[in-house]
């Protein structure tokens, strides 16, 4: 977006509602619009200038006041131009500006207010969570046989039916996981949206909680960890039911399968070489605003640097040089770990997971074909169910991947 009218020192403006939050750097602030999901990190004096502009002072008056009070020159005209580009200005020199937030999809569950869900993150619920998880741990010491094992996944001889039901149960679990991220964000008064995405070769359901940059860093951990906390609570509850409620064997088999898929999903959140829950925890602990992007950029720089040495050309500029010493050190270490970790994950997928998927799909197609031509009907139906589930998941992954990376598929 560009300004419809030129910005001058005599100009006045009306800002849209903005969040101005102190940054981890004492000399910086984070300014943004939660409903737009747009945030920028600025020196603290620019934050002061924005507050003065919000009070209705002309651009030139703000610039002179900053210079008089702090003895520094500040280009407030350039600042206003940047604010207009970001969509932070509602009115400039008497002219209304278009609002980019009108093109942003609305948040999910807009009726869900902070007062509705704040209690979920209070001390009583924290005590309940600790009691349930602690009781499950104590139970496991006495009943180690309750720890899920791989064959708990196969509660039926019909693989297609097993895959269909287990996928349905896992869909409920992952929906609760992401809903807890949304609820945690809403408990802090910020919007959030749930959607599909991809991480390397994985199809994921993810929650966009960019708006939590408008709250203090210590509060953001609630949002990052809410999903995993929910998973652990469900897992502990299932173990306690299996240990003490003595459910019928059919029900127990389903509960064991559900416990298994939950147990397997939690470690995935610790793969910090992707944008998982614990990646965001790590990024905030290291005080890095864009750990993944900066780390990937530094890894590309190292590759280009090696190429430059081989070709005997001038090496490229180091993108991490613009970061603070603390953030630069964290980004460089992360970059060194990022590339081999992602390479191992993709290699394991290519060597093991992909052949299993392709082989299973081929076997299912053969079973359906044989069923149509006089073979066992039940095996054909079971294979059809497997094709429906697995084929649907892979198709959804491809569609989501293409939508998430449109620049890769443009001619």
Biggest sheet features? 3 strands, antiparallel
User: Count of DSSP helices?
Assistant: 12
Share of helical residues: 55-70%
Structure summary, number of beta strands: 8
The coarse overall form would be globular
Q: What number of structural domains do the residues give?
A: 4
Low-confidence regions: none
Q: Kindly name the structural category.
A: mainly alpha
**Strand residue content:** 5-15%
Mean pLDDT: 87
Widest sheet, order of strands: 1-5-6
Distance between the termini: 26 Å
Task: Tell me the series of helices and strands, N- to C-terminal.
Answer: EEEEHHHEEHHHEEHHHHHH
As a whole number of angstroms, the C-alpha radius of gyration is 27 Å
Q: In a nutshell, what does this entry contain?
A:
With 411 residues, this protein is mainly alpha-helical. The chain has twelve helices and eight strands.
Structure report:
By secondary structure, the chain is mainly alpha-helical. The chain has four domains: 91 residues; 158 residues, no CATH class; 56 residues; 64 residues. Helices cover 59% and strands 9% of the residues. The protein is built from twelve helices and eight strands. The strands form three sheets. Strands 1-5-6 form a three-stranded antiparallel sheet, covered by helices on one side. α1 packs across α2, α5 packs across α7 and α6 packs parallel to α12.
